[in-house]
Amino acid sequence: MSQEQSAPAVQVNESSELEVRRQKLAQLLAGGIDPYPYTFERSHNTAEVTAKYAVLQAQEHSSDELRMAGRVVAKRGHGKAAFANIQDQSGSIQIYARVDTLGEALFEAFLKLDMGDFIGITAKPFRSKRGELTVEVMAYELLCKSLHPLPEKWHGLQDKELRYRQRYADLIANPEVKDTFIKRSQVISAIRRHLDGQGFIEVETPVLQSVAGGASARPFITHHNALDVDFKLRISLELPLKRLIVGGFEKVYEIGRVFRNEGISWKHNPEYTLLELYQAYTDYHGMMRLVEELLVTLCRNLTGGDSVAFGDQTISFAPPFQKLTMEAAIAQYAGIDIHADEAALRHFAEERHLDPEPGLQKGALQGLIYDKLVEPKLIAPTFILDYPLETSPLAKKHRSKAGLTERFELIVNGMELANAFSELNDPIDQRERFVQQVKAQQAGDEEAHPMDEDFLLALEYGMPPTGGLGIGIDRVVMLLTNQPSIRDVLLFPAMRPE
Question: In the Cβ-directed half-sphere of 31, how many Cα atoms lie within 13 Å?
Fold first, then answer.
């Protein structure tokens, strides 16, 4: 804010300010002024003016006339002149109004503007004597009367819960937040460019599904009135995309919202954006190469280099990433041999207060120990390979290791970023896996995979060897923009109703 600005005004009671603003609205209407006109033709935005007139020296004026528009975010008067700042998507700029130019009536109306009002101006650029690029208002019009006061400018909107609930106010008070979401959009665009360039085809699959499969998760349930049928919101994109591989597509992907009826944390939101892709004639080794190439490409596009700062860590996405089997990772970070019998694994988990649920099988106990004691310690990008059969019902059995599957997860900074398989394409084996999942469901596991007869039918038509990959877009954006919580990269995160 420039030196021309005065100290912030003392805040008034919000309820009284709401009333004052409504009185001003009534006065405008009584005076025949439309406080909500339909359009305003701009010639420049703030960033364009800042760049074009950067060469102006102190007290140098330009004769160019500009048409600009934005929200009033600061205002201070000096007798027969007044300064303000207007903000648009590209930034903020100081504006200057004086009675000699606008005339008494229009200048008085300018002084009555509230912070939050949108105005359109015709203005000429100059640089103030203190060196700030400014535009002098030749004429202006009100574009939208704001009826609610903005968050207090000098302290910003700091309450995290309020910022998430009122993201619109957060974006006004903390313009740097907008940059995170612009970068999010750039990440998604870069993903599309990269995959399209490799011959992948983007498709769309149903959000409402009679069988919500492709992951171990509890779905949300809704009801379709016309069909009088319950549907589930999808928990994954996997099974419809693999049906397309059966149908003859060889490289497909989808970027879509998925919904899981689970807890909320710094890395979990009930709905999130998932990239899933499937490629015929490859396996999980091919998916490892693909995810390395994709992530380093995203990092370079956003930062210009192979590394990002995240908290007090520097994370390099330069390939190759570290590789560890789950067995080696548990031995190294948890200090137990996963080949120990089920009773020993349960005892180990109970001793460390991991709260294993009754009935968890050996593979699930291994997964619990890994999730709680190993994953949080993995900071640099690390592929964890070869997961237990019980926890991977859609992955092919490992070609040389009994009881394991050809599956990896990519862990970065203690959180799963990607999950990939050599996809199971044997319909008989797949049916047997589903049967075991149904038994687990009947024993009380609400996240066990349901039976999906139509998917089994599709596999019976034949699916070629296929590699599949899922990447959590929100977590990628967290890492690339140095945001500590998934809520900071979701414009509208899930919140408990007030």
Answer: 12
In whole angstroms, what is the distance from residue 111 CA to residue 9 CA? 14
Q: Which residues pair with 428 in a beta bridge?
A: none
Q: What is the pLDDT of residues 227-253, one digit of tens each?
A: 999 999 999 999 999 999 999 999 999
Q: Give the phi and the psi of residue 301 in degrees, each rounded to 5.
A: -60, -35
pLDDT at 246 (0 to 100): 98
CATH fold of 176-321+380-489, please? BirA Bifunctional Protein; domain 2 (3.30.930)
Q: Is the dihedral of CA 27, 30, 36, 38 positive or negative?
A: negative
User: Which helix (H) or strand (E) is 209 found in, with range?
Assistant: strand 208-209
**Cis peptide leading into 125, omega within 30 of 0?**
no
Q: Which residues have a Cβ under 8 Å from the Cβ of 270 and sit 6 or more positions away?
A: 220, 259, 260, 261, 262, 264, 494
| Length of the chain counted residue by residue | 498
User: What are 126's strand-pairing partners?
Assistant: 61, 134
Domain covering 14-155 in this structure, CATH number = 2.40.50.140
d(Cα 198, Cα 297) in Å, to the nearest integer?
Answer: 13
User: Which residues 6+ apart lie within 8 Å of 94 measured at CB?
Assistant: 2, 4, 83, 84, 85, 128, 132, 133, 134, 135
Between CA 334 and CA 161 the distance in angstroms is: 36
d(C-alpha 43, C-alpha 369), whole Å: 61
With 0-12 / 13-18 / 19 or more C-beta atoms within 10 angstroms meaning exposed / middle / buried, residue 36 is: exposed
Beta strands in 249-342 (DSSP E): 251-259, 271-280, 307-310, 313-316, 322-325
Q: What are the φ and ψ backbone dihedral angles of 65, each rounded to 5 degrees? A: -100, 130
Instruction: Write out pLDDT tens, residues 349-375.
Output: 999 999 998 878 888 899 899 999 999
Q: Taking the domains of the chain in order of start, what are their residue ranges?
A: 14-155, 176-321+380-489
Q: Is 468 helix (H, G, I), strand (E, B) or coil?
A: strand
Phi, psi of 185 (to 5 degrees): -60, -40
Report in angstroms the alpha-carbon separations of 101 from 74, 97, 107, 254.
Answer: 21, 8, 8, 56
Contact 135, 124 (CB under 8 A): yes
**Residue 175, class by beta-carbon neighbours within 10 Å (0-12 exposed, 13-18 middle, 19+ buried)?**
middle
**pLDDT in the model for residue 160:** 83
Sign of CA dihedral 18, 23, 29, 31: negative
Q: What is the pLDDT of residue 7?
A: 36
Q: Which residues of the chain have pLDDT under 50?
A: 1-12, 154
Exposed/middle/buried for 478, CB within 10 Å: 0-12, 13-18, 19+?
buried
The type of residue at 176 is E
337 C-beta neighbours (distance < 10 Å), count: 12
The residues facing 411 across adjacent strands are: 382, 416
| Composition of the chain by helix, strand, coil, percent to 5 | 35, 25, 40
